[in-house]
Amino acid sequence: MNNSLDRLLDGMASTLRTQIIPKLDDDFARGQAFGVIYMLNSIRLRADWSIDFLKDQLALQATALTALNAALRGRGPALPDGALPQALVSAKALQDLRDANDRAICGLIVWLADAGLPAPDRAAIETILDRYMTDQARHELKTSARPMFAEMSRGTEDA
Amino acid sequence: MTETTALPTDAQIEARLAAYLGEQTGAPVALRGLRRFPVGFSWATFGLTASLPDGDRDLILRLGPDTGLFAPYLARPQYLVQKVLTQTDIKVPDAYWYSDDPAVMGMPFYLSEKAVGEAPIPFVSNGAEFEPGYRDSLARDFVDQLAAIHRFDWKASPLAEWDTGQTVENVAAREIDFWEHLHDRWATRPYPMVYRALTWLRANLPVAPRVSIVHGDYRIGNFLEVDGRITAILDWELAHLGDPHEDLGWAFLPQYSGNSGLVCRLISRQDFIARYQDKAGITVDPATLKFYIVLNLFKIAMTQLAGVSCFESGDFDDMRMPAMGTQIFAAFRQIQKAIEEDA
């Protein structure tokens, strides 16, 4: 998920209020929609992104960063060690750590393109990077709902 | 601020548009039947009927809100390309009026012909396939229309105003620069695959066979048809000068195959290329096609980033935007596979 949870919940409530409810001509249906808005607002006060989900992302980074640091042998930009925080931390702190790790990996990719490393060394690093990006994508896709773009384009759902 | 405050209300649209059309035609204009269409992820698209001095006319109105996906918008390029190509055999809805002056509608807008036909879409949730005769007829038109766009002599037309020094040597690099700039504007977090794709693209720059008009979003979902014949090529928002392979690479994306294994649910890659080469007079280069498939997947990912960014800003409540944003890693996975595949 790439938008913040608060913004998603606010956007859903606003969409219901401004774009859906005014088009509903049934009192009960409108009442139900306001019920959804109320519950979205309630969830917003207490919910956060799953810490387990973020820890899974960080675990993939830790594996990649350990392998990259070994392959680089001190060459190139400094990389974090990818260690997971031991203390209880917030989802926001874990997101910041994930982004800092990915930012360092982005910097490594840019450096690698012009670093002039021996071909086998470069290939070994690229293999680790490709494996990380594959694992990162698989994790994201595994935790995503079935897309509904046909329904969003047509405004109807197949029976 | 929400989208509904960024976009005029229906009543405001009708009042402003009636006044504008009255000025343009020199007579009172009445409007009716204004309705917004669910298609289109960028410009807000409406249908309406105008009672003009020469009779009733069904119109398409497109509004470019400053909170939209590709904002800030300019209406002139779309107006111009449609107006110019209307004079050719290419099936394009005629463009009637436009303005980039926010004093008129509060944002750029243009009005075009409401072409007849239905728009088959790429998203298939029930596995439906086209009837073969219908599909083959559409496929022929789909290829032939693209070839005609790429054959068009833009230098001898008003579209020559798009010439900013594009050459067969520099169009690929310019396209990368354009989308990298948008990435820097839209990215809300770092994605390693963005940099993997950019470094691969810059290491594999092709030379174009010619600089042509590129539609920029040529695919199923962006044309209308009647009885298996294409009646209109739509959505010229991303049209520009570039390498014709760019349009092929776009139409070939898996996003538009509907799991059919065909280009846009219509035709095999081999048959598309064979017919296109014959009609366009261009030899399709496999390495160049691969480059543009990767670049186009990158553009897909950047467009999804745009959806995340404009929704996250709080100015735009269209729920299709964060939904698009959920697909970024699907595009990244496709980029990686495309890079690894042989040309």
Q: What does this 3D model show about the protein?
A:
The complex is a heterodimer of chains A (159) and B (343). Chain A has 6 helices and no strands. Chain A has 159 residues and is mainly α. Chain A folds into 2 domains: 5-47; 51-142, no CATH class. In chain A, α3 (51-72) runs antiparallel to α5. Chain A is elongated and about 70 Å long. Chain B is of the alpha+beta class and 343 residues long. Helices cover 43% and strands 15% of the residues of chain B. Chain B has helices at residues 3-6, 10-25, 76-85, 102-105, 132-151, 171-186, 192-203, 245-251, 269-280, 286-312, 320-325, 328-340; strands at residues 30-36, 44-52, 55-63, 95-99, 109-113, 212-214, 223-226, 229-233, 240-242. In chain B, strands 1-2-3-5-4 form a 5-stranded antiparallel β-sheet, sandwiched between helices. In chain B, strands 6-9 form a two-stranded antiparallel ribbon. A two-stranded antiparallel ribbon of chain B has the order 7-8. In chain B, β2 (44-52) and β3 (55-63) form a beta hairpin. The longest helix of chain B is centred in the last third of the chain and has 27 residues, at 286-312. Classes of the chains: A mainly alpha (159), B alpha+beta (343). The interface between A and B is large, with 44 and 44 residues.
